[in-house]
Design brief:
The protein is α+β, with helices and mostly antiparallel strands and about 650 residues long. A hairpin with a 2-residue loop joins strand 1 and strand 2. The longest helix has about 60 residues.
Amino acid sequence: MATVINTNLASLFAQNSLSNAQNNLAQSVQRLSSGLRINSAKDDAAGLAISQNMQSQINGTNQSVRNLSDATNLLQTADTSLSTIHDMLLRLKQLATQGYDGSLSTSQKLDIVQEMKDLNNEINATAQRTQFNGINLLTTGSSIDQVNSDLYKGATLTNSSTKVDVSANTKTGYYATGGAGATTGLGDSAQTGGYNTTFAVILDPAKSAKAVGDFTLTANGANLTLTGTYNGTPQSQTVTIADVVGDATSTRTQAQTLDFSNFGISLALTTKVGAGVTQTGINMAAKLSDSSRAALSITGQNGVVSDVNLSGVAAGTYTLSAANSVTGALASAAANAALVTGATAGTYTVRLGGGTGGGATASVVITNATTVGSVTLSGGGGYTAGDTLTIEAGLLGSGSSAVTLGALLAGNIGNSGTSGTLTLSGTVNGISTTQSVLLADNASINAKQSVSFDSFGVSFDVTSYQTQDKKQLAGLLAGLSSGVNATKGEIIVAQGANSALKFQSGPNSGQFIQIDTLNVQTGTSGTTAGQSSEMMTMGTRISQSGVGNLGSLGNLDSIDTWQTAFKNAAAAVDNAIEYISTKRATFGSQMNRLSYISTNLQSQSTNLQNSRSAIMDTDFAAETAKLTKGQIMQQAATAMLAQANQMPNVILSLLK
């Protein structure tokens, strides 16, 4: 090897060795300080992937063990109450047998029956208060029948349907398809260049009810911005209009939709261009935002039943009604006289808000078919002089027409009912019941009020997207219709089903164990309605009237009647005891199963953690040996580097 100065190969070798020694030493220090063999993906890429998959399985397994612990506690809670019910059933059997004692007087037998009734009531009470984290374990709740009920969460309350205002040539709707100026579109058909654009304003039914108000359109090049208020909050949204380029030799028609999704409003543009002609997005944006079309108005008055809560309500049908009506005299002016010309006395249907699909229905009664007569408007509720009505049959002779209530009735318009009062009627525990609630005005955007009929255990929230007064709300709620039943304003409550509770029993989502709750109540209707025939039959034998039952027996009943009733009760109690015993046995076997599953999962978790440890954790015995080796190699490499750096000095002796 040549003797040189510029390149000291020995020093370079020593530097590389020192760098490797320092890297190995740093790695050993990192592993010993963290306790992990893999601190980043570069340490062991495959090992990291395997260990993370194992960690996912470990986490799922450990959480499953905790889930099963909750399931065990839930079952123990249910079994504790079933044990209490079991004891009461055994006492009922003893009492039913005691009733056979011929030496007992009628009053003593009645004392036995009273204790049996009390125990029957306590079985129902025990079932109702047995809950775990709010879940009923021994009884089922009630719920709104979403198919048949008129009132449900999400039911709309519409005074006037949401629509685009097309009344004036300063509004966008005037030039849109269906507007008064629809044929003009953007007014560009006469321009040189041969293009024409028409458009329609489309409202999203799911969102537009909250977009009532005035909006403006502004352009910046081909960008069109809609600005306004949605759900009470000012905001804006910008979309871009694309150019429409004509074919070389023929006319072309192209559609595009400008979707202002934040508002539930879109503009559907249809552009027709001649051969070789281009209609630019900039031009269309400018046309849509000029002073004659920049104002977009959405009208409507809407609300929604935003929540429904049931508390102890029995399954059944309950009906809302609103006592609102207005009465006045027909005016003699020619414009109003036309309203009854050709009409005969009778009852005619009208609807608030116009159209056959919107608003609450009401009726107009004509008592004198002359130019001056008497008219009464009833049902529906919440009328004021400015309300728009659509007369749907007969009043104008034929067809339909929208009129203003102020034009239909002259003079002062009074209210002969209870303004804004909503009444719920139905049967509670066999008793015909009514309860009335005076509503409040929803006097601001998104105002909400809770309506509670505590006599029934029914309450619901009413939210208004625009202002609605109490008379309007009462009429709309009473006029709700699902279209299934002829009667309006029905709240149909269905008996809930048993809950199928699922608890994950392994790290994978498809691994679970199912626990079914029970309904051990003994009633046949109302809040104590059960689902088990054994328990319901027992409740009937003890508490209900009828042949062979204890419920209505008294001093005048014969010995045979008493014996038959006690015999029937004893047989029913035996069946109930067998039913509860079977269900407790099922819960017991499930608790044993949960115990085995938990033990198995804990063993799996231990083994998985052991396997992951072998991949991820530092072997301190081996790593400390590497640390010692690294320290020695670092010192040796440092010493050799120092020696190598001195080697070029030997060349100086050749220059002497």
